């Protein structure tokens, strides 16, 4: 049987990043940040050919290339691009202060409901640099790494539980989750050994099979052995 290879998203989305996050609270809002250094290191371990790009812009052909776009009304925006296994995703992020307010080239004030007037300081290159690295982490989330952080979840999404359907001797379909079905197959295998002479080698072979296939093989073994025993007794 050929096993399906996990996609990039499935691989990265299954990683638990909780031990590498930092939570910052501003007012009544708590935001979780993932370490960009850890995130990029994990991606490179799994996909050594992965690359990222920090987008650069210029106002006109004579101006220098800068790692942000700026608008007097809305503030600064940074962009990154990540390529993994031939797949490229772009991401963008505003340059924000600790209260997640957009930063501009000059300080400005705004009113809050409970704390009165607040000031957003002018953005510096330090703020731009922080935003770029946070943008990179958000970009990696598009490939699955730490995506559940942005969904407000505490843990990675669990894969759906596999359900096995078995038709019993009366023709009724019974459904079991994997742990329950595995326990049934183990008891079935022990019955085949204790009552119908199944060898250790045969039990080992069943143990290496997918459990639904093992269930079928053990059932056939018991039915065939039982029939042989009845024929011997009748003979």
Descriptive report:
The chain has 235 residues and is α+β, with helices and mostly antiparallel strands. The protein folds into two domains: 8-150, Enolase-like, domain 1 (2-Layer Sandwich); 163-234, no CATH class. The chain contains seven helices and ten strands. It has helices spanning 8-13, 36-46, 125-141, 147-150, 178-196, 200-207, 211-234, and strands at residues 21-26, 29-34, 51-54, 69-71, 75-84, 87-94, 108-112, 116-120, 163-167, 173-177. The strands form four sheets. Strands 3, 4, 5 and 6 form a four-stranded antiparallel β-sheet that branches. A hairpin with a 2-residue loop joins strand 1 (21-26) and strand 2. The longest helix has 24 residues, at 211-234. The chain is elongated and about 100 Å long. The mean pLDDT is 88.
Quick synopsis:
With 235 residues, the protein is an alpha+beta fold. It has seven helices and ten strands.
Topology (elements, then pairings):
Blueprint (H helix, E strand, L loop, with lengths): L7 H6 L7 E6 L2 E6 L1 H11 L4 E4 L14 E3 L3 E10 L2 E8 L13 E5 L3 E5 L4 H17 L5 H4 L12 E5 L5 E5 H19 L3 H8 L3 H24 L1
Antiparallel strand pairs: 1-2, 3-5, 4-5, 5-6, 7-8, 9-10
Helix pairs in contact: 2-3, 5-6, 5-7
Which terms would index this structure?
235 residues, alpha+beta, Enolase-like, domain 1, 2 domains, two-stranded antiparallel ribbon, 7 helices
